[in-house]
Amino acid sequence: MPAGSQPDNARIIQLTKLATLAVGREPNFLPGGCTNTNMAIARNIPAVTLGRGGEEYGTHTLNEWFNPKDVFCCEQKSLILLGVIAGIEGTLKPLGETL
């Protein structure tokens, strides 16, 4: 497996897909993982990089561009995922301990 990646059936990946669908977006996991998650995954700590939302092309190239339309979906997705993993007092038991 490439650095910073996890199997598609990893619980955190499945929860991330559900959170993404909950905000009306299609999950789009890029192959090869992300350097933002390498350290955690190397220590057997489940991790994902959620991205910033919006539309982008040519990251880190001279042709790079970014359209911030609907960028708020990333924050919504983050809050949903954090709520599920950490729990919501009086509402939802934390799942983080079982990831």
Overall description:
The chain is mostly helical and 99 residues long. The protein has three helices and two strands, in the order H-H-E-E-H. The protein has helices spanning 11-22, 38-42, 72-86, and strands at residues 55-57, 65-67. A hairpin with a 7-residue loop joins strand 1 (55-57) and strand 2 (65-67). Helix 1 (11-22) packs across helix 3. The longest helix has 15 residues, at 72-86. The chain starts with 10 loop residues before the first helix and ends in a 13-residue tail after the last helix. The model has no long low-confidence stretch (mean pLDDT 84).
Features:
2 strands, mainly alpha, 3 helices
List the topology elements.
Layout: H1 11-22, H2 38-42, E1 55-57, E2 65-67, H3 72-86
Helix pairs in contact: 1-3
The averaged pLDDT comes out at 84
Q: What spatial order of strands do you see in the largest sheet? A: 1-2
Write down the Rg: 15 Å
Structural class: mainly alpha
Low-confidence stretches: none
Provide the β-strand percentage band: 5-15%
Tell me the major beta sheet: 2 strands, antiparallel
Give the CA-CA distance, first to last residue: 19 Å
Taken from the alpha-carbon principal axes, the silhouette is globular
| Count of helical regions | 3
Helix content: 25-40%
Number of strands: 2
**Secondary-structure element series:** HHEEH
Give a quick precis of the structure:
The protein is mainly α and 99 residues long. The protein has three helices and two strands, in the order ααββα. The protein has helices spanning 11-22, 38-42, 72-86, and strands spanning 55-57, 65-67.
